[in-house]
Structure formats: C-alpha cells, structure tokens
C-alpha cells in the first residue's frame, strides 16, 4: 500500500483540503438538530413566527454553504484521485514495458491488462471515497455523540453503547471480505484469459466447430468468478442490515428514555427531537462508512495486485554505461549457448557455438519446435542464456545498454504485428527520424511499395489494430520494411516470408542482398528455398545444431537437412 499511496505525494494540498472541507460540511450538519430544537422549544412553544422564520433562514443558509463546501471537497478529492491513478497507470505501463519475455509470461498478458485497467480504476474510486468520507464519517459520528451529551447526558448513554458495537461490526466484515475480494480479482483474471483466448482464435474456433466447447469453458470460468463475487457480496451485504438493526434498536431505546424524561420534566420535546436527529445522523454516516469500507476493501485487494507487479523487478538488467561495438570483431558469437524456458523440464537450446562475420548471411532451418526462434531471440537479448554466452561485435550482449542493443539489431518477429495508426507511423518505429525517402526505399526493398501505392492514403493510410485491414503477406512485407528503416548492422528475419509467394520472396532476397549497408542477416525459415542462397545454413534439430555449411555441403553431410530437402522435393 505504501508504494501506491506515494502517488498522492504530488497532491498533498488536495489530500489535506478534501477531508478538511468534508469535516466542515459535517460540522454544519451537526448544527441542524440544535436549530430544530430551538424552533420547537422556542418558536413553536412561544408561537414566535419571526423567530421561526429567522431559524428557517439560518437552515437555508447552512444548506447553501454546505453545498458549496461539499462541491469544493469533491473537486479536491477527484483531482487527487484522478491524478494519482493516472500517474500510477503510467508508471505501471512503463514498468511492464521493461519486463523481459519471461516476466511477461510469468504474469500473463490478460492479468497485466486487468491490473492496468480495472484494478487501477478501483484504486481511483477508493482514493476518491476515502478522501471524502474516511475522516468525515467518524468525525460526524463522534461529533453527534458529543453533541448528544451536550443536549442530555442520560439519553446520550445510548450513543456510547451503540457506536463501539457498530465499529466492531464494520471491522469484522472488513477482515473477512478482504481475502474474498482478492479471490474475486483472481477470478476476473481467469475470465479475461478465457475471453481473450476465444476472441483471438475466433476464426479457428468457428472453422473447427468448437463454439460449444469454448462456451462451456467460459461458463466454467464465469461460474467460478460469479461464485467468488457472491461470497464476497454476501459478507459485504451484512453491513447495512446489521447497522440498521443496531441503530434502530438504539433509536427505540432513545425515544423510550426520552419520553420518560419529558414526562418527568427533565427534557423538552425539542431536545428529544434533537437526540433523535443525532441518532439518525449517526445511522446515515455509518451506512456511508459501511459502503466506504466495502470500496476500500476492494481497493486494497486491487492495490495489492498492482503493487505486486510494481515490486517485481525486471529479470534483465542493463548497464548504465554501454560497451562500444568493435567494428573489427565478428558480428555475432555464440559460445556454448543454451536456454531453458522457465518451468520447463528440458532445455530448448543446448551447446550452440557459432561465429558470424559482419555482412554474412546465415540461414536457420529446422522442424517446428527445433529451437530456431529461440536461437535468434538470444541475439537481441529477448531472453538471457541459461548457459554459455552471446557476443555482438566483441562484447557480451549483457554489456550493452538497452538503447545500444536496439540500435545494433533489427527484428521482424515470427508473428507480423502492426499497430493502430498509419503506415508511416508503423514504419517510423524503426527510426522516428527517417525521411519519406528512407521509408519509400525500405518499402521498395521489402516488396511493400505496391502495397502502399495501392492504398488511397499512401504512407498515411490508416492501419487498424493489429493490421486487420491488411492481408498476412502485406503485414509481413510492412514489418520487414519497418526493420529495414532501422538500418541496423544485424537483421533478423524470423519466418518473415511465410505468407509470401515464391516469386515475391525471391525478389525480397535479391533486394536484401543489394542493400547498401550490407547488414548481417539471419533468415529463419522452414523453406529450403528461403535459405538456400545464404552463405551458411544452420540446421536446428531438438535444440541442437545438426549441421552448419552451405546448401551443397549439407546435402551430402547432414541427414537432417537432406530429409528436409527431400520432403520439399529438392534434390540438388
């Protein structure tokens, strides 16, 4: 909670003024029963109409001032709550963006989205209500009790008995409901995971007629979430009826005792009405406090979940002072490199040693699950090796700052991804200072020039989320163009031509070989035709290197490569 509350440091004035104005509002409300008592005991008893009119005018003035005070308090509370939650959401997003692939996998995209949106919104609501009511309600309750003792000490003993009982009820409900609301948020995470999975794969689900299966899975997740919500809601729902019972019993006792004292001449009728008003005021405030406790309970549960993300340090650390690339060193060196995914029983990559010179073209081929993508993901340090080391231009990748490493390596991921915006904005991800000529040249080399030319908006053509308004081949060509705009000395094409026809892919390979900057290129593919012309081909098999060499050398010396070629009808 301390990590969350620190976001209010920038709103100290609002955090102080919001509860101050709410307590001023409560103070004004405590004057109302006294004025009503005087109207009854003085104005009505003495048939003094001018006095009654004056007191009614005073009530109207208190109402008007109270409204202004309440609006002011709400302004300060809202400003602090919205500002703090905006800063929290910004820092939470920035923190998660520094997570490694392993960190993201550990939390899961769905739960991170849930914490970034729903949990932060709940925290904002909790801060708002806390600043408005957490001090106001107890102040009003104890103020009403003190005022009641000032009116009549004997009947006020009822207040002294009921208030501790009410606070005990609230504390007990809060203690039980906090763990339950934690389970509710966990159930929400499971529900989001189910929805996200189904929506992302809706085409496959429909193609294989699995709608009913997915609907059943969703109902199961929804059932767990509903059950957890009902359990938490049942406990929280006890607050209102229990406080109503206690306060109404106290009111009955108060009216009975007041009637006896009025009969004996120890109290006036106006004082009994004032005591009744103070008791109902306590009831109203405790109902507000009870609802506040429910909200705070939810907010605490959400704050705990958000704090857990913020307290999770990224598993990869980058040095403040970056090493400088050695222009005479090999572009990439893998020394007995290996990697095991977190929680996996076996390694996905083991004992890979390779030296790649600058400007060399390396093909990586192998069956699905052979470790091709894992291998190239070690080069830009998407993952850290669990054994061995990876060097770029003479230095271990861990010696480079994040900024320097990003300048050295350009990647087209296995899944072509475009972002909402325009084609220009997507290409500028590679280099935000690139000119239109640079973008056009990169698009031409990536065989995406015709894609852009066919769009009425050209480079300013809108791109929908995840590139929904582009075909798979168009998205792949645009992602290659984005990588080329970067002009990095190392270029990784991870299955970047899987959706392209052979003629387009051939033109792409030719264009890449003619690039003026002559980058070191890693081409990952399952097609022999995609890697056949590379300077060397690396054959991956079960996380190990089955062979390294040219196409002709591997045909005679590597059974695994020869088997791949034969399966694709290539014999020479």
Spell out the key features of this protein.
572 residues, alpha/beta, ABC transporter transmembrane region fold, Rossmann fold, 2 domains
How would you characterize this protein structure?
- With 572 residues, this protein is an alpha/beta fold.
- Helix content is 63%, strand content 11%.
- It has 21 helices and twelve strands.
- The strands form three sheets. A six-stranded mixed β-sheet has the order 6-9-10-3-11-12. Strands 2-1-4-5 form a four-stranded antiparallel β-sheet, with no helix packed on it.
- Helix 2 packs antiparallel against helix 3, helix 2 crosses helix 5 (109-134) and helix 7 (153-200) packs parallel to helix 11 (269-310).
Q: Can you lay out the helices and strands and say which pair or pack?
A:
Elements: H1 2-5, H2 12-44, H3 49-97, H4 101-107, H5 109-134, H6 136-151, H7 153-200, H8 202-207, H9 211-236, H10 239-263, H11 269-310, E1 332-339, E2 349-356, E3 361-366, H12 372-377, E4 387-392, E5 395-396, H13 402-408, E6 409-412, E7 421-422, H14 423-427, H15 436-445, H16 449-453, E8 462-463, H17 472-485, E9 490-494, H18 502-513, E10 520-525, H19 528-531, E11 536-541, E12 544-549, H20 551-557, H21 559-567
Parallel strand pairs: 3-10, 3-11, 6-9, 9-10
Antiparallel strand pairs: 1-2, 1-4, 4-5, 7-8, 11-12
